[in-house]
Amino acid sequence: MIDAHIHLEQYDLETIEQIVKELPQKGIEALLAVSMNLDSCIRTEGLAARFPGIVRPAYGFHPEQPLPETDELKKLLEWIESRADTGHFTAVGEIGLPYYSRTEAFERGEDFDMEPYIMLLDTLLGLASRLAKPVVLHAVYEDALIACNLLEKHEIQRAHFHWFKGPEEAIRRMVASGYYISFTPDILYEPEIQELARLYPPELVMAETDGPWPFEGPFAGHPTHPSMIREVAASWGKLHGYSLDQAARILTANTVKFYGL
Predict the structure, then answer these.
(1) Torsions phi, psi for 135 (to 5 deg)
(2) Which of 3, 54, 148, 161 stands 20 to 30 A from 210 (CA)?
């Protein structure tokens, strides 16, 4: 199987080496490693060079952090674009909109200006469109509708909404556009996610861990490992009447098709 979304560079190097060493015996063949900002991109690139064919890098700017300064964004865009023809650049990501930061600001009674983040996403999607790369999106709930508008503006068809949650309107629109989503280990214990898994077409679904993000339920207290996607596959498969092997094959084939692996 392939972990379709992991922040590999956020693990310490000793843990990364142990994870990669264990992958074959755990039935994992590759990791789609996303990035947070320029420094993160550089670390991800280093891991892709160290573990070729296993670590598939994605470069971007995560929205749940302060906006980049103008010079910082310029350097990031130039750096990503300079990697376009290297053959080792899988996707633009993680990019998106700051739903959780905005929610927390509102809970503190603070204002939150979304417009600069929308402009940033617009810029990054424009880059992905020029480079003909798929995009890895952090866009949940009502933010997914804004992301859909921007995807349509840039005529991007290969969009992966990772760890998606959202209203029926967004789900219908995403399905109609052929956008992919991925499920994390919380599919084992979150009814909202299980219901989404029943609704979303099986041909548009992948499995991810979003590691090192920790999980609850049967995973409470355990470090997040890419092998957890096999349990994601088993849980997702039960909802559709598939065996573990059938579910794993479907989710893996979807990931290979989407990312061109």
Answers:
(1) -120, 145
(2) 148
